[in-house]
Structure to design on (299 residues):
C-alpha cells in the first residue's frame, strides 16, 4: 500500500500543471524558497530549545486503518501518506490530515427517475467505497465523501433513465454492475475505489401497482384455465384407454362394478343398493334389441 501511494504521489507531482499546484515542484517536494528555509531552521531551533516538551507536538500517531497526508508550507511532503504508527512533524510549518482507509457505505436517497418507457419510479441504492490513495483524495478533490455521494445519485438517475421498467425490476444485478463501473472510473482521479453498488428498492406509483396486480391476476387465471383444460384432455384420453381395455375383457368390467359397489358401501350412507349382475343386464339388452329388430321387420 505504501509503495502504491508513493508511486501515485509521484505521478500526482509530475502532473502538477494540470492540477494547478505549480510547475516549479519536484518529486522531493520542491523548493520552499529562502523564507521557507528560515522558518524551517527556526522551527528546528524551537524544538531543540523546548526538548523534550516539543515532542508532544512533533510526534503523532495514526491507527492501522488511517493514513496521514502531511503538508509542509502548503506543499505535499514527498514520500506519500504516512502511517500506520508514529510519524514526525515540524510544528509551525507542517500540517497534516488524517484519512480513513476503511470501506465506507452510504445510502443514495430515493431518486425520481423517468424510465425509457415513460414510467416514473423512485429508486434508492447503497454504495460501498474506500479511499485507495490518501494523497489524491486530499489534493485532487475538496471533499471526496460528499463528491462521491453526489456522483452516485447522478449516476443512478442516468443509468436508470436508459432502462425499461421491466429491466429495472428484473435485471438489478446488471444495473448495479454498470453503476459500479461508471462510478469507479469517475472517482479514480480522486483516489477513491468503488467496491460495490446495490439497488435497494424500486417504488412504483399506486395506480401502476394496481394495474400490474390486475395483469398478473389475469395471467394466473388464464394459466389455471389452460392447465385445467389440459388435465381434462389427459383424463379423457385415460378414460378412453381404460374403456377400450375393459371392452376386450368382460371380467374386468364385472370386477370394476364390484369395486365400485365396495367403495360406495364404505361411505356409511343410508342408501340401500341392490346389485344387479352385469350379465343379466347384457342378456336383457340383447333380448330387447332382438325384439326391436323383429318388430321393425314385421312392420
Amino acid at each position: 500500500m505504501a509503495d502504491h501511494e508513493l508511486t501515485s504521489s509521484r505521478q500526482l507531482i509530475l502532473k502538477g500543471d494540470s492540477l494547478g499546484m505549480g510547475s516549479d515542484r519536484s518529486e522531493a517536494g520542491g523548493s520552499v524558497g529562502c523564507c521557507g528555509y528560515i522558518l524551517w531552521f527556526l522551527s528546528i531551533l524551537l524544538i531543540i530549545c523546548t526538548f523534550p516538551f516539543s515532542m508532544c507536538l512533533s510526534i503523532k500517531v495514526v491507527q492501522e486503518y488511517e493514513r496521514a497526508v502531511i503538508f509542509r508550507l502548503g506543499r505535499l511532503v514527498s514520500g506519500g501518506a504516512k502511517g500506520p504508527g508514529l510519524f514526525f512533524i515540524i510544528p509551525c510549518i507542517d500540517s497534516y490530515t488524517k484519512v480513513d482507509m476503511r470501506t465506507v457505505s452510504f445510502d443514495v436517497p430515493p431518486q425520481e427517475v423517468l424510465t425509457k418507457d415513460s414510467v416514473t419510479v423512485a429508486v434508492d441504492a447503497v454504495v460501498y467505497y474506500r479511499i485507495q490513495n490518501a494523497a489524491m483524495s486530499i489534493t485532487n478533490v475538496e471533499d471526496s465523501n460528499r463528491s462521491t455521494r453526489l456522483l452516485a445519485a447522478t449516476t443512478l438517475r442516468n443509468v436508470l433513465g436508459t432502462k425499461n421498467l421491466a429491466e429495472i425490476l428484473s435485471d438489478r444485478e446488471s444495473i448495479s454492475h454498470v453503476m459500479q463501473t461508471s462510478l469507479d472510473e469517475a472517482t479514480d482521479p480522486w483516489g477513491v475505489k468503488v467496491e460495490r453498488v446495490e439497488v435497494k428498492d424500486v417504488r412504483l406509483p399506486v395506480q401502476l401497482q394496481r394495474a400490474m396486480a390486475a395483469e398478473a391476476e389475469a395471467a394466473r387465471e388464464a394459466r389455471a384455465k389452460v392447465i385445467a383444460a389440459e388435465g381434462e384432455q389427459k383424463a379423457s384420453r385415460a378414460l378412453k384407454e381404460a374403456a377400450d381395455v375393459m371392452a376386450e375383457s368382460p371380467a374386468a368390467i364385472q370386477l370394476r362394478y364390484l369395486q365400485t359397489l365396495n367403495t360406495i358401501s364404505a361411505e356409511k350412507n343410508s342408501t340401500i343398493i341392490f346389485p344387479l349382475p352385469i350379465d343379466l343386464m347384457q342378456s336383457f339388452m340383447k333380448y330387447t334389441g332382438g325384439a326391436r329388430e323383429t318388430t321393425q321387420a314385421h312392420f
Summary: Strands lie at 59-62, 66-72, 75-76, 85-88, 94-100, 104-114, 120-131, 192-203. The radius of gyration is 43 Å. The domain at 104-204 is CATH 3.30.479.30 (Tetrahydropterin Synthase; Chain A).
